[in-house]
Amino acid sequence: MPPPVILWFRQDLRLQDNAALAAALQTGAPVVPVYVLDDAGEGAWPAGGAARWWLHHALVALDASLRALGGRLILARGPAGEVLDRLRRDTGATAVYWNRRYEPAVIARDRALKAALADAGAEVRSFNSALLFEPHTVANKQGKPFQVFTPFWRHCLTLPVPAPVPVKPAAWPAPARWPASLTVGELDLLPTRPWAREFPEHWTPGEAGAQQRLKAFVAGAVDDYGNRRNLPDTDGTSRLSPWLHTGEIGPRQIWAALQARAKATGVFPSGRGEQVFLSEVGWREFAHHLLFHFPHTPAKPLREDFEKFPWAADPGGVQLRAWQRGRTGYPIVDAGMRQLWRTGWMHNRVRMITASFLVKHLRLSWTHGAAWFWDTLVDADLANNTLGWQWTAGCGADAAPYFRIFAPVLQGEKFDADGHYVRRWVPELARLPVKWIHRPWEAPADVLAAAGVTLGQNYPAPIVDHAAARAAALAAFKTLRGDGVVERG
After folding, report:
1. Statement to judge: residues 272 and 381 lie in one domain
2. Which of 8, 389, 391, 425 is catalytic?
3. Among 299, 315, 291, which Cα is nearest to 364's?
4. Is 128 in the active site?
5. Burial of 260 (0-12, 13-18, 19+ CB in 10 A)
6. pLDDT of 75-113, one tens digit each?
7. Does 195 qualify as catalytic in the annotation?
8. Structural domain includes residue 194
9. Would residue 436 show up in a list of annotated catalytic residues for this protein?
10. pTM exceeds 0.70 for this model
């Protein structure tokens, strides 16, 4: 029997379209799959609480899939280099394979780890299973990274998209002896607080859950995605983001599924819904492109002038806590923050509204919001989180200008016109008429009484006045530059 290959699972917790797995199987050698919980190797961004909940269940699902083939997932925690070197010596493995990641701290760790393993005589190979287009392969006409999405994606669409990598193991090539492993419980990933108790009602982590969700989306909501993706009360988005983050599904599989669907018409993308959805896949690619080329951006703005932005003081963190808990007095904002807390996810349109409220109405740094989302989103992804917050704050690549301020009442009335989203997540307002559901502080006293709403008691009055907050934000922005003003409805 040839010496084993160690297959290091990371953010690629699937069997299909897994390039490292396919290469390991092609060697004909025994394959030892391992997952290493290496928080220190993630730098300043080890997985947050909600993402760790997801990871726990994703690892359980992957181990079950491997065991069905006669394999198993070896679990370990600690510095990845030490764990892999120990496994190499314990098993007699002469090769270590993995799929690449693109976060700055992980790149630095992997580079050092690869050199150390090679010095020890191991064959080390890495592959791409996370992106359609790796960041180092895409550049503008000047050979520099893109900083605007539209030309980036237009360029990407001229490039070939690889087909998913076929992986069809009939049985797992097990080693003669399996090394010792922790149990998933010993990784201590599940939250100790009960805040994640509703997550299982909304999510099925694992490769099978990802495929089920993709199949349902492609069969239905994708057709009207261009229209319904902004309506938070409808199931109009793919909701694939947490599976994408952990790699239980890959973008090549999504692309191929839509291509297969388009065979009936001979046109790809076959309609506006598919075109808009694929552009959202493109935004994920763009986020990784930016993080790779501008590794400082998780902590600092891409636009250096924003380092001097005069953020507001928040003694005791009172306003930040009100935002985190969905107690701002603006129903669409509060609905989003409560959906996040209870489900580990928030609709993308509402992510923009809540983020804008934090950085422009409360004038608190986008880094506070990024940290909160990092801990509470099951799909918390460093590239996407960084891009999203810098876009909203106006300090990143292709960003919404800071003076473009989302008016929460107008946003609520436009995208939750009947108030169903607010009624679901802010039930204390459920009996308010549509006219007042997004502006309860303006409702007549008898209407509030009939709906059982007492402002300042069972629902807060607005913690800031929209007009005053908007004026303060614009004044702060003008300390950097004197631009015009656009208010977004």
Report:
1. no
2. 389
3. 315
4. no
5. exposed
6. 999 999 999 999 999 999 999 999 999 999 999 999 999
7. no
8. no
9. no
10. yes
